[in-house]
Amino acid sequence: xxxxxxxxxxxxxxxxxxxxxxxxxxxxxxxxxxxxxxxxxxxxxxxxxxxxxxxxxxxxxxxxxxxxxxxxxxxxxxxxxxxxxxxxxxxxxxxxxxxxxxxxxxxxxxxxxxxxxxxxxxxxxxxxxxxxxxxxxxxxxxxxxxxxxxxxxxxxxxxxxxxxxxxxxxxxxxxxxxxxxxxxxxxxxxxxxxxxxxxxxxxxxxxxxxxxxxxxxxxxxxxxxxxxxxxxxxxxxxxxxxxxxxxxxxxxxxxxxxxxxxxxxxxxxxxxxxxxxxxxxxxxxxxxxxxxxxxxxxxxxxxxxxxxxxxxxxxxxxxxxxxxxxxxxxxxxxxxxxxxxxxxxxxxxxxxxxxxxxx
Length: 359
What we know:
By secondary structure, this protein is of the alpha+beta class. It has two domains: 38-159 and 337-358, no CATH class; 163-331, no CATH class. It contains nine helices and 19 strands. The chain crosses the membrane at residues 9-30. Keywords: Membrane, Transmembrane, Transmembrane helix.
């Protein structure tokens, strides 16, 4: 029997060796790792969302990217991806917002939003909600590069107390017509005369001082109270005989375009009518028949500069340009009314619970 190998057998041995080495290398290169444990991440989040009050939880993981979408989480690394969901509540990933990240890691809401809470005209709770809403829009459903640790925290947020005031005016059209009849400086259709300034005060209230200044539209007003020859003659004779005691002389009318009024805090509680600064409520007949030598009347028109001073009303001022519409002098630009029951908050008797996550 001939056991001699063919002449080209050595080629076969070399080929088999090369294939064996390649297969061995391929076997060594095949991954033996597993995708991240998304369920553990979901369990950690649910440990915070299911808490009755404030709570926090953390989970170390090996995911390179994480996607948080309301009540689901997707975690991915080089070995694959995994999905999981949590059954209670929804969350917002806050990566990229420094203040919200600080809150997730233990800082109080009051400390993170200290300036907003200190300002009586800023609703700090609404500002917090605005940042959460922005983080929700930026991060929900998008991959977030992870640092290897998931942090979740449920926080209670109480509504911030604020102070605000708005004003509006009504006009005294009849009075301005009478003034125009007695003055050559203007005509009735050229001027609007504010009559009352109504005040609407909200939130924390205190004693306040209100200053109103308008643009003066007339310097002086001449009024006549005596008409006819015999009336003038009788007035002249009686005034001469009584040496000025019985004289029917018209008063000097002095227009004024600035006034200040003060109000106690208690005047705003339960008042059936708006609290008002009266400007030109006097009747023109009362001006003509006044016993005083000098009568002051309101002679200011729009624009009205209004300033309010008092505890909680710093930097509270504004300009009223016309009647009947409210003008905001001070108060929060943003309130909780701007947020129509967002998915990420749970209102329990006026306390808002929110769960924030950093991945």
